[in-house]
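step: validate -> pass
step: tokenize input -> pass
step: predict -> running
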Amino acid sequence: MNKYEIMFIVKATIESEQVSSTAETFKKLITSMKSKVLDFKELGQKKFAYPIKKEINGYYFVMQVEATHEAIKEFDRKALLDENILRHLIIKLDEE
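step: predict -> pass
step: emit ->
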């Protein structure tokens, strides 16, 4: 398994319970596919430099995971389909 850092932005215009439930859903997605979440941070709401999908604010989340390639592909697929996720970025971390 490789280590990855995943950042995703959730819409700020939805209710706060829905924001945290969206974040938990994506956290559980990783753990359900025989992978581990090493660190999970909520960075809070931030204003964008430019509108993204007509939104001007978003909640930022960052997690470091040790995951299989299949888990990362599934996370990417579901993040693209979920309308509450505005953007996401997956970075493979170097082996030490």
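step: describe -> The domain at 2-81 is CATH 3.30.70.60 (Alpha-Beta Plaits).
step: cleanup -> pass
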